[in-house]
Design brief:
The protein is mostly beta strands. The chain contains no helices and 42 strands. It comes from Dokdonella immobilis.
């Protein structure tokens, strides 16, 4: 993947950092920067008093939007523990019990979908031995979920089932040096090994999926032959393991460019060298096993399928491949069970880079390079390709894009190919324009433009309800990253963050699931001390914030 110049579609609800690159735009847009108001209610600091050197290193918002869980060395420098706090503010509760000397809570934790329980990894009882625990989100007794660990063993990663009832994890639990797959109730109890016996050198790899109905686990392993990676399906509470891919040719491997589940959980889509060694193709197979179907068309010599997405309605797979011309990536759509593949990208619009499927499964938006990077949309089963933005000048191009959850609009940033280099902070130049356009074409609306040289948009996110765009930018003070929001179809922008201490910046931000708040990290009050804040967006909320807003 070429990360130097092209960037994938963004997750809609979370601001993510991406390479910073500028764009030169008409001075006619400079007046837009004055249309900024302050948020009606100030941000609330969520963490407790921070020890010198302390910082927030991870945070998540519960699915019900009521609670924020975070990991920080809040009480003792470099001892990372886990806390929960109401999203509207309050006294944080430490969730882990006292840690062994040298112990820490890891940043990769999960909140169950019902918002009641947090599952986390920590070397809580023995320094250097990561184990798995669950604890009520409001505080209480932490329960160890795994069996005893060998002296040199430890756990690697885990997932919580969509129904919140079980935890599936990998680790060296039974034998040192052999990673295997296990399942246990989120409340503790009997631990069940899910994989079959491993050959010498075999391991479960850290990529797996739990079906939406929480009944099966699909995992990736060299379970039958060392160094031959294949995919398997097994009931989540244990039972017969089914290999999903067909027999492989000598040297063949599965999962080279990923595998995944259809959103309805009925099928597994995977890439691999199933037919010919060193030829990566795309396949679909029922979740419980059966005959795999090849999805791509015949590949030119040297061609390969390099990425794919399944439509939200689970009817089609959209994939990228140099199927017809070696080294020219194009976009195709095919029924999920197999059939004729339809080319979606217009061959006159150059090489394809990234793409996303609308939430209603009707439309594909993709980024393609003609002379410069542009955005296009097309029906998922093929048809007329629509250029989403009027051809910009040859010094401007699309940098990054995201779709609204309701599938109506595309939000994107632009950058300049001929502008200045680094930002005022000395890092990569930022994107200097943020826009929104209807997904089927129409006038693009500027959301944030007219930045000073070397400043611009660092990241953005679309709210889950598709009403707002939040973005981080040095819009008012060059070199000072602050947080803003603007209606997705354009209008008055609000500054969400409070004034920054000298040297302070917003680091990252995330919408709450109901879009009523944004939770962000910033060294807002003390330079180089990342703390956690929440601020109301003005969208409806079911809960009361500490400063009185709902």
């Amino acid at each position: 993947m070429n990360t130097a110049h092209h960037h994938a579609a963004a997750p809609a609800a979370e601001i993510r950092r991406h390479p910073r690159q500028p764009v030169l735009l008409s001075g006619a847009f400079l007046m837009l920067l004055s249309c900024v108001t302050l948020a009606a209610d100030p941000p609330i600091k969520l963490n407790g008093p921070m020890v010198a050197g302390g910082r927030i290193v991870a945070r998540q918002v519960s699915a019900d939007g009521r609670t924020v869980v975070y990991v920080a060395d809040q009480d003792v420098d470099d001892i990372f523990e886990m806390y929960s706090v109401p999203i509207g503010g309050g006294v944080p509760t430490r969730l882990n019990p006292p840690l062994v000397n040298g112990g820490d809570v890891r940043t990769d934790f999960r909140i169950t979908p019902d918002g009641r329980t947090v599952v986390y990894l920590a070397d809580q009882n023995a320094n250097g031995v990561d184990e798995l625990f669950s604890v009520p989100i409001g505080g209480g007794t932490a329960i160890k979920l795994n069996k005893p660990i060998p002296s040199a063993g430890g756990l690697f990663s885990f997932d919580v089932s969509p129904d919140g009832a079980r935890v599936v994890y990998t680790g060296e639990q039974d034998r040192d040096g052999v990673g295997e797959l296990y399942s246990v109730s989120v409340n503790g109890g009997t631990v069940t090994k899910l994989n079959r016996a491993m050959p010498s050198g075999g391991n479960i790899l850290n990529r797996r999926f739990i079906t939406p109905d929480s009944r099966r686990v699909v995992y990736w392993a060299d379970q039958d032959t060392d160094n031959v990676n294949e995919i398997y399906s097994v009931p989540i509470e244990g039972g017969t393991v089914t290999k999903l891919n067909a027999p492989l040719p000598a040297g063949g491997d599965i999962g080279t460019f990923g595998f995944g589940l259809s959103p309805d959980g009925s099928r597994v889509i995977y890439t691999g060298e199933q037919t010919t060694n060193n030829v990566i193709e795309l396949y679909s197979v029922p979740i419980a096993g059966g005959m795999p179907s090849k999805l791509n068309g015949p590949l030119v010599s040297g061609g390969a399928v390099t990425s794919f997405q399944v439509s939200p309605d689970s009817t089609r797979v959209v994939y990228r491949a140099d199927q017809e011309t070696n080294d020219l990536s194009e976009l195709y759509s095919v029924p999920i069970g197999g059939g004729s593949a339809t080319k979606l990208s217009d061959p006159g619009f150059g090489a394809l880079f990234y793409f996303a499927i609308s939430a209603d499964s009707s439309t594909v938006v993709y980024q393609s390079d003609v002379d410069i990077d542009e955005l296009f949309s097309v029906a998922i089963d093929g048809g007329l390709v629509t250029r989403l933005i009027a051809p910009p000048s040859l010094t401007d191009e699309v940098s990054f894009f995201a779709l609204s959850n309701n599938g109506s609009r595309v939000v994107y940033t632009t950058r300049s190919l001929a502008g200045p280099g680094a930002s005022v902070n000395g890092d990569s130049p930022p994107d200097n324009g943020l826009f929104s356009v209807p997904i089927h074409g129409g006038a693009a609306v500027p959301l944030a433009v007219g930045f000073a040289t070397g400043s611009g948009v660092k990241e953005f996110a679309v709210s889950p309800n598709s009403h707002l765009v939040a973005y981080a930018a040095d819009q008012d003070f060059v070199g000072v990253i602050e947080l803003y929001q603007v209606p997705i179809s354009g209008g008055t922008r609000e500054k969400l963050s409070a004034p920054m201490v000298s040297g302070g910046d917003v680091s990252d931000a995330r919408f709450s699931p109901d879009s009523s708040a944004v939770v962000y990290r910033a060294d807002q009050d003390t330079d180089e001390t990342l703390e956690l804040y929440s601020v109301a967006t003005g969208e409806p909320s079911d809960f009361l914030f500490a400063n009185g807003f709902e």
